[in-house]
Amino acid sequence: FSGVITDAKSGNPLHRATVYISDLKVGAATNNNGEFYLRNIPEGRHLVEISFIGFTSITQYVNINGNTKQDFSLNESIVENNEVIITGVSSATQSKKVSTPITVVKKEELFTNASVNIVEALTKKPGVSSITSGPGVSKPVIRGLGYNRVITMNDGIKQEGQQWGDEHGIEIDELSVSRVEILKGPAALIYGSDALAGVINIITNVPVAEGNIEGNLLGNYQTNNNLKAFNANVTGNIKGINWNIYGTAKQAADYKNKLDGKVFNSKFNENNFGGYGGYNAGWGYSHILFSNFDQHIGLVEGERDVQGYFIKVLPGGMETRATGDDFKETDPFVPMQHIRHSKFVLDNNFNIGKVGLAINAGYQRNQRQEFGNADNVNEVGLFFDLKTYSYTARLNLPEKNNWKFSFGVNGINQQNRNRGIEFLIPDYTLNDLGGYVYVKKEISKLNFSGGVRYDNRSLNSKMLLDGGTVKFDGFKRNFSNFSGSIGTTYLLNKGLSLKANIARGFRAPGIPELASNGSHEGTNRYEFGDKNLTSETSMQLDGGLEFYSDHLSFSTSVFYNSFPNFIFYRKLASVNGGDSTINLNGDDLTAFKFEQRKAALSGFEITFDIHPHPLDWLHIENTFSYVSGKLKQAIEGSKYLPSIPATKLITEFRGNFLRDGTTFSNLYAKLEFDNTFSKRNIFNAYNTETTTDGYLLLNAGVGTDVVNRKKEKVLSISFTGSNLADVAYQNHLSRLKYAPENMASGREGVFNMGRNFSIKINVPFNLLREDKNQ
Predict the structure, then answer these.
(1) Measured in whole angstroms, how far is the alpha carbon of residue 246 from the centre of its chain?
(2) Measured by CB atoms within 10 angstroms of the end CB, which terminus of the chain is less buried, N or C?
(3) 612 against 142, higher pLDDT
């Protein structure tokens, strides 16, 4: 497969434009004459993506048979590019033909973001929020649903890291990420239980063009908490043998804001490494991926003395004020967590004639230790040791009469063991098995897709005696259910499309919801599960409209999601009035219990981009997100669901300059207004939630590429200022909002980060570049 890529306006060849076939994980870059060559491409109809910086990408199906030749012409981009390929469905698909809302975030956009973890970087997108425990921990929330209702996929494997916990983040190094796909709405058809809210598909394994060995050195410094991060990677592709290896070191001291000052023990550090190696040929590809995530993170308790100074606990139970040196440390004090997550994946794709067979197998081990004893800082309190074996097989039949069928099976075997001296959940063994059929049909401007799936989960929870007392009863549960979806897109013309989808989702209750009986070092809660909980099911309706023109783009998506058996936790009320508390080791912990009720969520997202002519360099983007969650029957007069994010409007003014500069290229400057509305519709039964005031954050950034005489990139730099007005605010989904009252000021909780400046520098290097592609 070969051809030439040119500028549609001038006819000049485009050097270093890329051609990529996602399903085959194979790509090439053009030489000085704009020529590209892809070898050993199997016969068939393949979805190809053609892209070049500053130009509108093309996604197009190409029938490849032997030495197929096809040329492409690209136009300079004015509006945001909507021609993207989605890989998080049964096979690579054009996003405009997917019936549910999808957002793609590329590596270039992540580079211009000052976030310190991958989840926070995604919260700029409509419908995406996060539950936070300070800067180092963020959990994804899609359309008001989080925890075990959002699946995080990483290179074809479902991330398994005790994702039920408030202060359990995603154990993925954001500096290793090449691309993220956010799939909103029930995705149980492909992924099984837990995908009620959607899927965050994180991709790191993207081979470079054949004949290249290259790498990057990236550094990041942030002023607020003295964050320092460094990442290095080397990747190559020689005669089908391709690889990547990376390493990251990151550390941060305590962050600050104008009301709390330095927030004691919000520090963290991490050291990560990973990569992959494999071979691509005409028969397909086989890749082995590995990664190791190692993080130490402090747990903010928010305890202060009567004068409002943060305190730390000394051996013997004595308390003293945290000092300036304590705030500067990057090694956390107790309480703290140490998280290690190791992962090995075998990713295969075989071309058998015109049939595609994908086989994926993985092993993960998540070790989460919590330390809380000031007398013995090395004593492990909670220690969850989770091992997960997973497998996936998918058969894609060749397209016939515009029909495409896919069949799949996936499952996991999971074993959790307690290895500490404290216990929150029991030891357990879990087995998941599911299978599905997925079909797509294209009729002129109409695209239909849908399918059906069956899942079964078996859970064996072990009995535990603690000091002669039964801590956990042993029990066995089995959960099974059907799920499915059907959707359509109608392409009225090149720039206008309508979308509709209906889906039934399924989620088996997690082990904490069924069997919790203990305290969690980071939450100040004592949690009780209920082993009689049933599976959650949902029925969601989605509708959407997308419009794109040369100077305007608009998209909107509305949804309604009904749950006959929604699982949530609430505070327990004391028989004497007020909160029910459990005294544990001298600490009074608020008691919470899981239960089920009928509920519904609804909402919408809007994205509106303007590029006013003739100011084509100016980009004005507006994103608006709204979600509401209600119980069908009020509890103690409260009808709203807990942990629903506040309404959000983000407006960004961005200027793009010097697309083809001689020294500086792709220069940009941006100004952002992040407006989060007040949150008054809360679950206030038993004082479970409190209201949250709205706030407006002012952010700005500037960046550029530095190029040499050959117009090759030698340096990229991004400078970002966040919360420039130093606003004191609390996000409604911040756990630190519920820290103890500051007795000196009367303010509840701990506030979010104040003014912060971030500088990122990336230096690419080439060890081998084959421009001839012969």
Answers:
(1) 20
(2) C
(3) 142
What residues have CB less than 8 Å from 182, skipping those under 6 apart? 102, 103, 104, 105, 122, 125, 127, 128, 142, 198, 199, 200, 201
Q: Are 332 and 298 in contact (CB under 8 A)?
A: yes
How many Cα atoms are found within 13 Å in the side-chain-facing hemisphere of 549? 8
Q: Rounded to an integer, what distance in angstroms lies between the CA atom of residue 289 and that of residue 362?
A: 9
pTM for the whole structure: 0.90
Confidence grade of residue 774 (pLDDT, cut at 50, 70, 90): very low
CA distance 508 to 25: 34
Both tokens of 281, joined, read 């040929």
Among all chains, which residue has been given the structure tokens 């039949």?
A: 397
Please compute Rg for the chain using Cα positions.
26
Tell me how crowded residue 4 is: count the other CB atoms within 10 A of its CB.
18
Altogether, the residues listed in the chain come to a count of 774
What tokens were used for 116?
């310190």
At 426-447, the pLDDT tens digits run 999 999 999 999 999 989 889 9
* Sequence-distant (≥ 6) Cβ neighbours of residue 93 within 8 angstroms: 47, 85, 86, 440
Q: What does the alpha-carbon distance between residue 484 and residue 457 come to, in Å, rounded to a whole number? A: 17
The amino acid at 55: F
Q: Dump pLDDT digits (tens) for 717-743.
A: 999 999 999 999 999 999 999 999 999
Return phi, psi of residue 324, to 5°.
-60, -40
- CA 710, CA 656: separation in Å to the nearest integer? 21
Q: Are strands 72-74 and 2-7 parallel, antiparallel or unpaired?
A: parallel
Task: Tell me the domains of the chain and their CATH numbers.
Answer: 1-77 (2.60.40.1120), 200-769 (2.40.170.20)
